[in-house]
UniProtKB/TrEMBL annotation, chains A, B:
It comes from the Bacteria. Keywords: Hydrolase, Protease, Serine protease. It comes from Flavobacterium ammonificans. This is Dipeptidase E. It holds the Pfam family Peptidase_S51.
Amino acid sequence: MKNLLLASTSTLYKGDYLEYLLPELELHFKDCKTVLFIPYARSGGITHEEYTTKVALAFAKINIIVKGIHEFENPIEAIEKAEGIFTGGGNTFVLVSQLYKCKVMEVLAQKLKSGTPYLGTSAGSNIAGLTMQTTNDMPIVYPQSFQTLGMIPFNLNPHYIDNDKPSNHMGETREDRIKEFHSFNSIPVLGLREGSWLEIKGEAITLKGNLKARLFRQNQDPEELESGFDLSYIK
Amino acid sequence: MKNLLLASTSTLYKGDYLEYLLPELELHFKDCKTVLFIPYARSGGITHEEYTTKVALAFAKINIIVKGIHEFENPIEAIEKAEGIFTGGGNTFVLVSQLYKCKVMEVLAQKLKSGTPYLGTSAGSNIAGLTMQTTNDMPIVYPQSFQTLGMIPFNLNPHYIDNDKPSNHMGETREDRIKEFHSFNSIPVLGLREGSWLEIKGEAITLKGNLKARLFRQNQDPEELESGFDLSYIK
């Protein structure tokens, strides 16, 4: 039975890293003494070590020990033996490239299907969708595929934002970009605002946090979904 | 001798399509009766036909006839025989995918090296750089490579914007994203603001328009470059 939390962001404005999620994480990882951290997205270009240290400090507050996947000789075995797993944000192209290079994409999918508690934030949530094609990130490396874990039957757009440019700027809005995605793809996309997360328990998918989420479907008007809503009907 | 105009945007705020560039285009394409339009980026998901009609209307103002590359049976031949070429904006992933699918990426590079006048706007400018990896676009299709035309010895970031998010949003700024690119790549990146363009004549690269451009190099602080500056030293 799947057991995932997929958060739009790790950090809220003026908040500490993972702070707003800690009460949830304490419950979510209640049976874990340790959590395996996947730092591959390398937020801001920091090293795997630096990123893991930052995560370990946050998890120490709920008495969980964090180990980075890069500390293990065999990343496949590290995933297979993990009590709980967290993939942090950064660049989704870098994350997906590295998951494929280390041959752990499929292993991670299998492990999560078996019920191991998982937390994703930003890029780490993005990879739970069918593809990474609704990321906001720059394509700074070339991944061998855009396919991702498929833990939910749609795609996510983390850090979803309604008005993301000054009105005199001619670049695309976030909504424009997702509409463009639907010129070429039929996969539904959920725009997850900062402060929202999805809770996946088996096949149930619930929108959590105080905000609405914005659902985009091919050839349909976008829809605002309420917090608490079961989203498992979206396909 | 290369002869290219690479514009950040096709359209300025409250302006018509290509309007601000028309005086330049009249000179740039002065020896052309016809211009070949490459609509592959399909701005906003419109059809190749619709996009070409829009471009033809703008070029009619300077008495140039526009033909879309999709109207030709053989796109390679269409490029080889073109008097002038324009690649419009839209989604860079879609554009680059299609250029590779039609096997015209290398043909286009050779044609431009031979001196055929070229105009690029947005995605059409982006592909003149070494790679498309500093695009702002969503990866809505998977191109066979991120390598592009290499008409200039650096990359472009079109629609460059200084403050592209509200201060309480935790996603990356444009500058953050380009810095992340430099965690993994050493290619310089020129942030080209809307209203700026590059003029390439042989090996000379001049910044045009009224605005400064922002140069990003690996491990260096960004630099503001003045309009009129010769940028051919950037490597």
